[in-house]
Amino acid sequence: MGPAEIITAPYTIWTAPYGTAFPAPSQAPGAGWQLLGKRGARSYSEDGVAVQHQRQFSTTQPAGTMGAGFGFTTMGGLRVRARVLDLTLEQYAIAMGGNAVTRTRPDLEAVGIRTIGLVPRMRNPVPFAVLVRGPSAYAEGQLAQYELPRCLEDGGGAEVVFRKGKPAGIGVTFLALRDPAALSEETAFGQLRAAYPVQLIEFAGTMQSGVLGIDGSTQSGTFEKDF
């Protein structure tokens, strides 16, 4: 087992309607959350999941100086990318901006048919929530997750290649939009949460005794410290 802060395991992506509550890192995604790819990370290409933080920065050089005097951010953004090795139409629909999958049910004389339109939704695309989840950098067995409350699929990687000896997949790119319900400017695109364990510590004396409180009083028991 390597250091927890070195992460080599893949992350998985979940989607849900806008406004769906995010689970705690210790909880399984509940009702409304749909796993991207039938087998999760096993349905992604070996490139895994990419989280791209975008930022454009501008500087100003006042007259009479040799360098920039100050700088400011002119644009920010966040994208999540993956190539999904799952060409079921339900997954294909995500890359098409949420196009509907229609069904003709099978009967005794004909197989069932599922159909999807290939023109991405152009007007009034429906935003949705995205959850990107994987190992925490703080401890083995703990989880971390990107919580993006309002996203669109921007179609930047929706290319399917069929070739000999290589699995066909379709690229998906989720663009984070500003969430009007965000509690702060820093969380306008969402937030990253990582779980970490509560660790037991020893106080002066034995494992079950120590000094607590600013008054110097001695207390008995096993105490926990939140690192």
Short account of what is shown:
With 227 residues, the chain is mainly beta.
Give an overview in words.
This protein is 3% helix and 39% strand. It folds into two domains: 12-196, no CATH class; 198-227, no CATH class. The longest helix is centred in the middle third of the chain and has 7 residues, at 89-95. It has one helix at residues 89-95; strands at residues 12-17, 34-35, 44-60, 70-84, 101-104, 113-116, 128-135, 143-153, 170-176, 191-194, 199-200, 209-211, 218-220, 224-225. It has 227 residues and is mainly beta. Strands 1, 2, 3, 4, 7, 8, 9 and 10 form an eight-stranded antiparallel beta sheet that branches. Strands 5-6 form a two-stranded antiparallel ribbon. It is globular and about 85 Å long. A hairpin with a 7-residue loop joins strand 7 (128-135) and strand 8 (143-153).
Q: What fraction of the residues are assigned to beta strands by DSSP? A: 35-45%
The overall strand count is 14
Q: What proportion of the residues is helical, as a percent range?
A: under 10%
Order of helices and strands: EEEEHEEEEEEEEEE
- Radius of gyration, CA atoms, in whole angstroms: 24 Å
- N→C terminal distance: 22 Å
Number of domains: 2
Specify the overall morphology. globular
Largest sheet: 8 strands, antiparallel
Number of helices: 1
Which spans have pLDDT < 50 for at least 5 consecutive residues? Answer: 207-214, 216-220
